[in-house]
Structures are given as structure tokens and as C-alpha cells.
């Protein structure tokens, strides 16, 4: 597997292009903005794009999702509880962050689902707290996890953003968001092998072992 990265400088948001070097099948994770830069990476590497995967619905992670979807005719996937965040332009901040209108989710994911392309399997880890349907994507074979805004290098995601009511009545009170985020990290991410590379939504990469020892917000 090969991992390429584009950084959207307006908010230092990381766009990841993850693909098999032999078959060229791949995905884009969190195309936040700069669609032409993303197109260039995909086209220059001859990538056969299969999907856009979203870790969560904030506009700095979804701003170029429609453009990528339309150019390559691929679906957009996100956790089912994030659909109401993604489709609400006020809650997702998409217009404020320069997005191209409301994003429609084509594939609704659940916790522990697996998104497979070619020989790669990305396991969906539901990690609510930053948003109600936030997820991380874990490739066990290649020891990498795409953590979105759940876990950063020596930091964690904010928990003070608004969340819409859940369609199934299972929303979480905002004062529980911090607990849920830290619990998600402890129970979903810190149980991964220490050598797992953490590819966050912003900032530099890390690994699980480092975060368990040195993250000041949540120790392992």
C-alpha cells in the first residue's frame, strides 16, 4: 500500500490518498479542499479511485468531496450517525469553510464494518466525541489508522461543537462528548498495536505507543 498526502493550508487539514501500488485501486480520505491538487495526485499516479471515505462531517474535511465524487463517479462513505451532520450545512460549517454545497452520503457505515478495495481492508472504528458519527479507519495488515479529528499528535479533538438530534433517538448530551471522545481513544485506538501509525486529520503523524505514553489528554 502507498500513502500520499495533501495538506490544505487554510486549516492544515490532511487529505490522504491511499492505494495499492500494483493494482492502483485506492480511496481518498477526507478531501477537505483544493480539489485540483487532489485530482493531480490521483491522475499522476494513475489511481483507480473506488470511494471517498469521510472520518466526520465538518467542512474542513468534506469541502472537496462533491468535486472528487463527480469527477471520478465514486460513492461517498461515512458513519450512519454522521449523515445528519454532513447534510446540515450550518452544523458542518461547510459553507463557512468554502465547501461546494451539502454532501450526500452514498454508503452508510456502522461500527466494525469493513470497507474493502483490492487487497486492502479498512475497519471502521466508531469514535464519537468530536462528532456523534466520527470514525477512524484501521488497516491492520499495514499497521495504519486514519484518526480524523479524534486523535492527534499529543492532542485530541475538540468536543464543543454542536450535534444535531439523532434520527433514531440515540443522540448524546453535549456534556458527555469529552467523556465519549476519551473513552473512544482508550477502548478503540489504544487497544491497537503500539507500532500502528496514526494519520490524523491535522498535523503530523504519530503512533499508538507514543500517544499512550505521552499524550497529555489521555494516557494509555
What does this molecule look like?
The chain has 220 residues and is α/β, with parallel strands linked by helices. The protein has 7 helices and 14 strands. It has helices spanning 35-44, 59-62, 65-72, 83-86, 89-92, 177-189, 208-214, and strands at 2-8, 13-19, 25-29, 48-53, 76-79, 107-109, 114-117, 120-126, 135-139, 144-148, 151-152, 155-156, 197-200, 206-207. The chain is globular. It starts with a strand and ends in a 6-residue tail after the last helix. 46% of the residues are buried. The model is unreliable at 166-171 (pLDDT under 50).
Question: What are its keywords?
Answer:
alpha/beta, 220 residues, six-stranded mixed β-sheet
Give the DSSP E fraction (strand runs of 2 or more residues). Answer: 25-35%
Order of helices and strands: EEEHEHHEHHEEEEEEEHEEH
Gross geometry: globular
* Average pLDDT for all residues: 90
Structural class: alpha/beta
Strand line-up of the largest beta sheet: 1-2-3-4-5-6
Total number of beta strands: 14
Tell me roughly what share of residues is in helical segments: 10-25%
Radius of gyration: 16 Å
Largest sheet: 6 strands, mixed
Low-confidence stretches: 166-171
Number of helices: 7
Amino acid at each position: 500500500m502507498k500513502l500520499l498526502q495533501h495538506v490544505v493550508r487554510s486549516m492544515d487539514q490532511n487529505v490522504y490518498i491511499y492505494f495499492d501500488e500494483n493494482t492502483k485501486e485506492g480511496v481518498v480520505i477526507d478531501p477537505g479542499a483544493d480539489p485540483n491538487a487532489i485530482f493531480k495526485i490521483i491522475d499522476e499516479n494513475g489511481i483507480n479511485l473506488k470511494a471517498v471515505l469521510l472520518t466526520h462531517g465538518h467542512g474542513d474535511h468534506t469541502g472537496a468531496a462533491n468535486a472528487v465524487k463527480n469527477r471520478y463517479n465514486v460513492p461517498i462513505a461515512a458513519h450512519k450517525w454522521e449523515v445528519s451532520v454532513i447534510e446540515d450545512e450550518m452544523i458542518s460549517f461547510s459553507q463557512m469553510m468554502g465547501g461546494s454545497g451539502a454532501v450526500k452520503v452514498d454508503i452508510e457505515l456502522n461500527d466494525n464494518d469493513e470497507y474493502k478495495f483490492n487487497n486492502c481492508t479498512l475497519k471502521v472504528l466508531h469514535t464519537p466525541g468530536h462528532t456523534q458519527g466520527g470514525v477512524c479507519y484501521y488497516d491492520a495488515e499495514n499497521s495504519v489508522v486514519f484518526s480524523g479529528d479524534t486523535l492527534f499528535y499529543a492532542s485530541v479533538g475538540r468536543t464543543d461543537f454542536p450535534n444535531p438530534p439523532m434520527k433514531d433517538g440515540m443522540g448524546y448530551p453535549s456534556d458527555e462528548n469529552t467523556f465519549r471522545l476519551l473513552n473512544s481513544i482508550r477502548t478503540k485506538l489504544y487497544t491497537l498495536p503500539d507500532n500502528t501509525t496514526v494519520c490524523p486529520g491535522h498535523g503530523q503523524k504519530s503512533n499508538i505507543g507514543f500517544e499512550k505514553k505521552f499524550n497529555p489528554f489521555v494516557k494509555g
